[in-house]
């Protein structure tokens, strides 16, 4: 693609990066075939190719409007297009640069700005989460259906030790919403680690991974959280922790981007520390004892691979393999590469699109008639909830149940 970016922009690292990304796009259109919003809306500007063209216009200095921003905000950042693209276009990074540039020209309507600020303030704070979700749980019968179905029927906040109960141990990342709504998954993780001869501990001062603020255009707040976590992880590893493990693929993907997020603020040993941060699935793959395997015709489970896992981290195979080792019969739904519409705060910022995408995924998964639906990310787990369908659970819970059996 030919570009005509202004000289002052081309003299900046972001401008040079954006120019290289734009030039790598050949406008073949393969990306539109796998874009959830394009399939739903049928508008070229609500697909990756159209959004790239809009970003190009913005970077070249052409006038933009709230309509331009609306098309960019509708992007789920599911990265499906990056998996599909034969040219390797780094679309997500280009979107980040383009939206930052566009924010200097166009403001969102004040209700949207207020909602984004409220979400950025509330969601990363665990204490507020617990209070807010406790109230929401009590008022569940009065909530609109589109909000009520996101709440698990039964939930209990995680409560695990801050001191290592065993000499060999790992640190479990708490997340923000995760520790409030995924207590059973945290307890299941403790059981799985114990079967591997390891204890588990929390870091009391650990923050949210920063993804919420990062994607709500507050990079400075995300950077502060990232630096806090890195310093805590360094100390925990020095004290003997075997690894820092994570249950939500969205958190792990954000952490993988800490070097880019922090830039010149990144500590010199950041790469060494991040080598010890991994998903629970990869850690268990190395440590589960051989006698854990239970081949046989166990229950059928429908596996929903989160976009952050299959398109961001490109590591969607390990979890089905672990479930199969435990004796489950794992099934993939039709079009399993498509996003469920959760995408973090997207469920609230783009509620209609999120609901439509979620309903499509729920129907596809339920069509498999599974005993349970399982996934690896807190957003997907909440999005796929359906009181009339099979239970939706984190894969670690299913693994721990087979271990107990």
Structure description:
This protein is 51% helix and 7% strand. Helix 2 packs across helix 7. The protein has three domains: 7-102, Fumarate Reductase Iron-sulfur Protein, Chain B, domain 2 (Orthogonal Bundle); 126-285, Glutathione S-transferase Yfyf (Class Pi), Chain A, domain 2; 290-404, Rossmann fold. The termini are far apart. It contains 24 helices and eight strands. The model has no long low-confidence stretch (mean pLDDT 90). It has a four-stranded parallel β-sheet with strand order 2-1-3-4. It has a four-stranded parallel β-sheet with strand order 6-5-7-8. The protein is α/β, with parallel strands linked by helices and 405 residues long. The longest helix has 20 residues, at 219-238.
Shape: globular
Computed CA radius of gyration, to the nearest angstrom: 21 Å
Overall average residue pLDDT: 90
CATH top level of the largest domain is Mainly Alpha
Biggest pleated sheet: 4 strands, parallel
Question: What is the overall number of helices?
Answer: 24
Quick tags:
single chain, 405 residues, alpha/beta, Glutathione S-transferase Yfyf (Class Pi), Chain A, domain 2, Rossmann fold, 3 domains, 4-stranded parallel beta sheet, 24 helices, 7% strand, globular
Write the layout of secondary structure elements.
Layout: H1 7-10, H2 13-24, H3 36-41, H4 48-59, H5 66-73, H6 80-84, H7 91-102, H8 110-122, H9 126-138, H10 145-148, E1 169-172, H11 177-181, H12 183-195, E2 199-201, H13 211-215, H14 219-238, E3 244-246, H15 249-256, H16 258-262, H17 270-274, E4 277-279, H18 280-287, E5 300-303, H19 307-312, H20 318-325, E6 329-332, H21 346-349, H22 351-366, E7 372-375, H23 378-383, E8 392-394, H24 395-404
Parallel strand pairs: 1-2, 1-3, 3-4, 5-6, 5-7, 7-8
Helix pairs in contact: 2-7, 4-7, 12-24
């Amino acid at each position: 693609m030919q570009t005509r970016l202004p000289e002052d922009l081309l003299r900046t690292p972001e401008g040079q990066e954006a120019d290289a990304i734009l030039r790598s796009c050949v406008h073949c259109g393969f990306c539109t075939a796998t874009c959830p919003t394009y399939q739903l809306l049928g508008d070229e500007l609500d697909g990756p190719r159209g959004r790239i063209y809009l970003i190009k216009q913005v970077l070249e200095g052409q006038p933009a409007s709230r309509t331009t921003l609306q098309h960019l905000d509708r992007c789920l950042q599911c990265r499906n297009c990056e998996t599909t693209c034969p040219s390797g276009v780094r679309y997500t990074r280009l979107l980040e640069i383009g939206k930052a540039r566009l924010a200097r020209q166009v403001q969102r309507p004040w209700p949207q700005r207020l909602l984004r600020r409220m979400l950025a303030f509330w969601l990363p704070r665990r204490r507020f989460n617990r209070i807010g979700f406790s109230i929401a749980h009590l008022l569940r019968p009065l909530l609109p259906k589109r909000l009520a179905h996101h709440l698990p029927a039964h939930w209990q906040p995680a409560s695990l030790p801050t001191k290592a109960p065993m000499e060999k141990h790992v640190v479990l990342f708490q997340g923000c919403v995760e520790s409030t709504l995924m207590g059973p998954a945290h307890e299941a993780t403790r059981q799985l680690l114990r079967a591997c001869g390891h204890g588990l501990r929390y870091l009391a001062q650990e923050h949210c991974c920063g993804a919420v603020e990062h994607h709500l255009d507050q990079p400075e707040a995300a950077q502060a959280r990232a630096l806090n976590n890195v310093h805590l992880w360094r100390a925990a590893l020095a004290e003997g922790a075997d690894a820092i493990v994570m249950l939500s693929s969205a958190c792990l993907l954000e952490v993988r981007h800490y070097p880019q997020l922090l830039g010149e603020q990144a500590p010199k040993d950041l790469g060494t520390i991040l080598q010890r941060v991994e998903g629970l699935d990869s850690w268990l793959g190395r440590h589960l004892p051989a006698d854990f395997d239970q081949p046989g015709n166990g229950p059928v489970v429908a596996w929903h691979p989160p976009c952050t896992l299959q398109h961001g981290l490109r590591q969607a195979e390990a979890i089905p393999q672990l479930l199969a080792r435990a004796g489950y019969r794992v099934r993939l739904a039709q079009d399993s590469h498509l996003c469920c519409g959760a995408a973090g705060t997207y469920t609230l910022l783009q509620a209609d699109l999120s609901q439509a995408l979620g309903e499509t995924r729920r129907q596809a998964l339920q069509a498999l008639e599974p005993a349970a639906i399982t996934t690896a990310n807190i957003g997907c787990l909440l999005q796929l909830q359906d009181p009339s369908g099979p239970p939706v659970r984190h894969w670690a819970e299913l693994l721990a149940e087979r271990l107990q059996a």
